[in-house]
Amino acid sequence: MGTNGSTMLEPLRQGLPPLDPSAVSSAASCSLPARYEAVGSARQFTRKTLDQWELEERFDDIALVVSELVTNALRHALPSDTPRDTAPPVRLHLMRWTSRLVCAVRDPSDDSPVARETDDDFSAESGRGLFLVDSFSDSWGWHPLAGTLRGKVVWALFQLS
To answer: From CA 107, how far away is CA 133, in angstroms rounded?
Structure first.
């Protein structure tokens, strides 16, 4: 990870259970365009990465959470005037320790993610994503980005057997 990568993930690490960043055994990330096809790309990236890490049996749960986090980033974090063809504003990170895997999605919005039970302004689907994240991961949270980068990182942690 270059210097750029490590500074960007600092807010994420502060929000996690104490994990030694130097103990990360594997890490992978990809940037995603501001289009809904990005969810499919994120799932493909997750499958490829988990295959490489020999964690394919965890794909269903992890891919579901990745899909929800990326969908939330695209739906709530991108102002409607965001040009859809400029530098990709959403980034997915997968990080693996010996007994834990973290997926983290960075987006340019400063708004905190909100889990909605029901909200007349949203379709029934929207807002339930974070309940799914909460159900399928062992813990999750979010942190504003530090330094010059605007936005936040939303992360979910999975215990590995």
So the answer is: 17
Quick: pLDDT tens for 27-85: 999 999 888 789 999 999 999 999 999 999 999 999 999 999 999 888 865 666 655 55
Strands (E), the chain: 26-32, 90-96, 100-107, 139-144, 152-159
pLDDT tens-digit readout, 136-149: 999 998 888 877 77
Cα pseudo-dihedral 38, 59, 91, 98, rounded to 10: -170
What whole-number distance in Å separates Cα of residue 158 and Cα of residue 116?
23
Please give the Cα distance from 17 to 158 (Å, whole number). Answer: 12
Q: Which amino acid is located at 149 in the chain?
A: L
Residue 133, phi then psi, degrees to nearest 5:
-55, -45
The pTM (predicted TM-score) of the whole model is 0.77
The residue among 88, 97, 95, 89 whose CA lies nearest residue 66 is 95
